[in-house]
Each structure stands twice: as structure tokens, then as C-alpha cells.
């Protein structure tokens, strides 16, 4: 295993601050997607919204994220990480604040769509920057902690949404505009973040790359210590050709297998709360508590990702969370305590697949196309999220909770199967080693075949 100053650097205050500021994207994603659910309770009655209008308002942000993630990835590969790291959050501030003054459904849908585009764009921008600075020993945990902030944002939305409800009939306006405040704090914190030296080197801007390396790592460190970072000559079309197309297929399949059941469980949560006789204000607090369960699972996965390795964590996370869903499906009439234990078990165990949604895309693609790869993977995941959001209510009404949970279990266990055949092990590799197609030699037989296809 080769060593270099970036991949083998100690975890510094710079890395910790970058990880914290980068996680603003998923925080805002969780916040804006959850706050609309609280706001709709007031907005629906005031504007007399029908089911179609409610659906369009809710789905517009997801559609925006789908569009923004790939666009942001392409642009960050083209223009760099630093500039877009700030611009996308400025857009979120402007569009969120504008929601306070919105007067009709069409403009609200447009603004929610634009917010989604900006939030989606931040994913490939921020994770690419974080992955390219993070030492190999800490890369998995730092990228894993990144995703936990989605659940923090969602829980915050439920809490602040409930507080802002007390402001009267215009409470929903304050709820939707409130996302501008954390976005402003995040953008101020991001000011001064340096450009990725790996991206600068890939563009031939060696002097600038060396200046950043000296700023972050000290004198004596230069891009000459990372000669393998400038050997590739790739573009976004490489995502769909050669070995990188196979890697993208693996990521798209496992991410979809993880996200669809996750949304199914979110749909199942109200039924659990009803069984516990939680309604009104308590339902909001209960939803926040359930969201925290998913966050706890991600945090646990962060602490074991290096100890277990990427591949075993993926397989076990899919397998045992699938078992929990299967038991929920087989025994939907079980006592409330048992249902809650199974629900908590799923929320905790699925955390491994959740953090790998950000670890694998950043580790399996080279600098030139890393942002585009992360963006495309994130966009594809939103298709799965939309499918889950649309089909779960239909399945609950036509098939019932038991069958719906069995379907979710089947999808999750399918994720375990494809992980057995395709998931590579990237623990301990430098970023250039894990992204190189030559690294396939150390992967499982199924993964070797996939990444070379």
C-alpha cells in the first residue's frame, strides 16, 4: 500500500470543519422535505388544495433534487468545487425566503422545484470536496457522518414546524421560509474553503494545487507526492462506458434497493403512532423521534465502517434489516411493543446501506468525473424515492400493511444479494487506488466482472 501526504495525513481541525460545513446539504435536504409536511396541515385548508395540488407541491422538491444533483455534479467537475460550494446555498436562501411571499400554488411549486435543484446540486459538490481532502483512515466515517445530517435536518423540521404552528394562520409561511436561516449560517461558515488540490491538478493548475497543499498540510507537500492523480484523461461519458459504467450500475441498484423500503417504512410509521394512540402534537414529536432512530443507525454504521469494512457492512445491513421488515410483514398484528422493536431494529440496521450511498460513489470514481458520478447516483436515488413515495400508499390501501412490508423486505434482501456479488472492498485504499479500474483485481469475482464490463 502506497503512502502520500493527503491520504495518510492525521485528522486535523481543517478536516473536521470541512466535514461539518459540507454536511449542510443533507441537513437542508431533510429540513425542506420534512417542513413541507408540517406546513401542509395549515396550507391545505387555507388554499383549499386538492389531492393533485398537494402531490405536486410535495413532489416538486424531489424532482428538483433529481435535476440538480446531476447538474451540480457536472458543473463541479467542470468549474471546480470551491465556487459552487457557496453559490448553491445562496440560491437556497433566496428561494426559501421567497416562499414567505408566495400567493398561489403555481409559484409555490416553482419555488419548491428551484430549492430542490439547489439542494440536489450541493450533494456532489460537497461530498467530492470532502472525499478529496479526507485521509483514507477517516474518509469512510466522515462521508458516513455526512448522511446522518439528513435525519438531523428532518427532526429539526418537525420540532421547529410545531413551534411555528403557534404563530397563527401565517405559520406555514414562516415554516417554509425558515430554511433560509440555517442556509445562511452554513454559507457564512463555508467562506474561505480552499479548492480541491486534486481537481486543480486534474486541470493542469499545478501551482494553485501546490499552494492549497502548503496551506492545508504545510511546507514541503506538493502535488509531486500524488503523481497518480494527474494520469487519467476522462470525461462524463466515461460514466456510461468501460468499467465505470459497471460501477455506476452497481451503485444505482444498491441505492435504489435501500431507498425504496426506507420510504415504505416512513409510510408505516403513522400506523405505529396510531397504535400507540399518538395524534395531534404528539404525532409531530413522535415523527421526530422515529427520524432520530434512523440517525442512530447511521451513527453506529459510521463507527464500524472501518472496523468491518465496506463490503461486510453493506451485506449485513441489507440482510438483517430485511429480516426485520419480513417479520413486520409476517406478523403485522403483533403487540405494539414487538412492532416497535422490529421497527427500531430496521431503522438501526439499515444505517449501513445509508452511509455507503455516499462512501462508494466518492471512492469508486476518479477526480475528473467524481462529481458527475455522485450527482448521477443521487439523481437516480430520487427516482427510487419517488417510486417509493408513490407506490407505498397504493400498496397499503390495496394490499395491506403485511404484504407491503413483505415487498419491502424482498427489495431489501435483493440488495443483500447484489452486494454479495458486486460490492467491492475499498477499506484502506487511497482515493486514487479505490477509483482505479486496476483495483478490481482485489474485488470479489462478481465485482471484478461488473467493473470491467
Automatic annotation (TrEMBL):
Transmembrane segments: 18-43, 55-76, 83-102, 108-131, 143-160, 172-193, 249-273, 285-306, 313-331, 337-360, 372-395, 401-423
An MF annotation (GO) of this entry: transmembrane transporter activity
Subcellular location as annotated: Cell membrane
Record keyword RNA-binding present: no
Major location (coarse): membrane
Keywords: Membrane, Transmembrane, Transmembrane helix, Transport
InterPro entries (alphabetical): MFS_dom, MFS_sugar_transport-like, MFS_trans_sf, Myo-inositol_Transporter, Sugar_transporter_CS
Family: Belongs to the major facilitator superfamily. Sugar transporter (TC 2.A.1.1) family.
Protein name, as recorded: MFS transporter
UniProt KW Transmembrane keyword: yes
Source organism, top-level taxon: Bacteria
Membrane topology classification: Multi-pass membrane protein
Domain (Major facilitator superfamily (MFS) profile) ranges: 18-427
Entry's Gene Ontology cellular component terms: plasma membrane
